[in-house]
Model the fold of this input.
Amino acid sequence: MNPEEFDQKLTEKIKEAKIAPKPRWHFLLKDYVVWVAGALALLIGAAAVSVMIYLLKNNGWELREETHKSVIEFFLLTLPYFWIIFLGIFVFILYYNLKHTKKGYRYPVWLIALAGVLSSIILGSIFFLFGLGQRIDNVLGQSAPLYEIVMNRQLSFWFNPEEGRLAGIIISEVDDGNFYLVDSAGDDWQVLGRNSGSDSRSPDFLKAGEPINLIGQILEDKKFRADIIRPLVPGRGFFTRPKIRQNRAHCFDDICLPPLPPSANMIPGNLIPENPPPGNPVR
Done:
């Protein structure tokens, strides 16, 4: 078949199939969509990094020895696996979109993945400095299902009274180191702290409405002796959930406590301050 016959047959095929060239804006739109999707994946991955930094920074490393866990065991029990997987998914989305750009095919997989991870870490660190990690954790803590099991495993780790760890929110006034607390499951506890004497003041974070971590031991049913008390940082939003909020009176034996009153420095409709108070563990 000579070139003229080939061109003629090709022209006939194109006419039969009604093939028409796509306008330039189709290709431009596709490129824009790819780049926008890649940028969104990068931003979401960076947000995940900011939450990871927030969780790891406030992991309670200073109390690791008090929990009788090795460094490796403590790290593995509190590692934010959900956010690591979440970051991995969006790095893959970023890679997929960059591969479909005009020049994306030129770059190897490892280079795009490394660039995506490093970009997410740098941008996520900036987000963390602006408080985004804390805000995301608070929002998810207020309503996300399985938050304490999947998204913030620190709560599950610290809520283990049988092993001497308890987390909850104070629901009464602190009297010489003693107070009442409701845990993450909505159960009430009477906490006996170490009496520090009438001349000593309790730290600022030890007051009604504050989520805290405790290390100690169970004395009897729903009574806990606290040897170390520390302000709870990640997971504070979790204690604004309806099953934990104090909309009823609490009774212990013959003593009934009134519902926790609202405070001016608390988030409207919630029980916790927007920013966690500074404070060292109380021993």
In short: Residues 196-200, 260-273 have pLDDT under 50 and may be disordered. The chain is about 40% helix and 15% strand.
